[in-house]
Amino acid sequence: MPVFDNERAPLPHILIISGGKESPGEESHVSGLLECLPEHIPCMVQIREKHLMAGSLYNLASSAAKKPRPEGRLLLVNERADIAYAAGLDGVHLPEHACSPSILKAAGFPMICGCSVHSIESARLAEDSGADYLLFGPVFDTPSKRIFGKPQGLEKLETLCRSTTLPVFAVGGITPSNGLFCKENGAWGCAGISLFLDRTSLAETLERLNSIW
After folding, report:
1. pTM
2. How many helical (H) and strand (E) elements, i.e. helices and strands, does the chain have?
3. Neighbours of 31 (CB within 10 A)
4. How many domains does the chain have?
C-alpha cells in the first residue's frame, strides 16, 4: 500500500482531473488517458467520476492501479478514501466540505490527502487538519464555474499561496499560456479537466506545462 512522504518524494507539478465521462461496460476514458501520458513527465491523475456507483468506481480505480505507473506518477480518487485504499491508489482528493484529513489520518489512512479550498480560511483549516496539498480556484474564467461567480484571480492565488506551507495547485481556466503567471504568484503546480481532454494535443500540452515548472 503506498505511503506518502513529501520530503522524500515531492508531488508532481501537474494534476490531471478526469472528465466525468466514464460509463460502465464501455471503453474507459481514464484507461485511455493513462495510456497516452508521456512516461518522462511526472503527474498526478485524479479519478473524478462522481456519477459512478461505488462498485463501478472501485472497478475503474482498481483497473487504473494495475496499469504501469512510471516514477513520479500518482493516482488519486475523488472523495472516496475507502476506494483509494482498497484499489491500491496513492491517495484521495477531498472536496472542501468532505471528510477532514485529520479524521482519515487518525484512522490510519497512510496515503495522500489533497483538499479543494476557495479561501484562506479553508486553506488554513485544511493545513491544520493534515492535508498534503491544496487545490485553489477557479483562478481564471472557465465556463463550468461561471454559475458560482467571478474567478478568484491571480492576486487571491498569491495571497493564499503566501498563507500556507502546503503545495498549491491552481485550477480553473489554466492553459500553457497563463500557467507561468500562476507559478510566478506562488502556485506549486496546475490542475485541470478540459485542459487535458484533447488526446491529440495532450503530449504537447504536458510538455509545455512541464517546461514551466
Report:
1. 0.93
2. 8, 8
3. 15
4. 1
Residue 5 lies in a domain: no
Q: What is the pLDDT of residues 147-173, one digit of tens each?
A: 767 899 999 999 999 999 999 999 999
Q: Which three cell numbers stand for residue 131?
A: 492535508
In a domain, 4, yes or no: no
**CA–CA dist 130, 153 (Å, integer):** 26
Residue 65 lies in a domain: yes
Q: How far apart are CA 124 and CA 199, in angstroms?
A: 36
Burial class (CB in 10 A: 0-12, 13-18, 19+), 19: middle
Separation between Cα atoms, residue 182 and residue 188, nearest integer Å? 8
Q: Residue 131 sits in which domain range?
A: 14-19+30-212
Separation between Cα atoms, residue 18 and residue 15, nearest integer Å: 10
Q: Where are the beta strands (DSSP E) in 28-124?
A: 43-47, 73-78, 91-94, 112-117
Q: Return the CATH number at 120.
A: 3.20.20.70
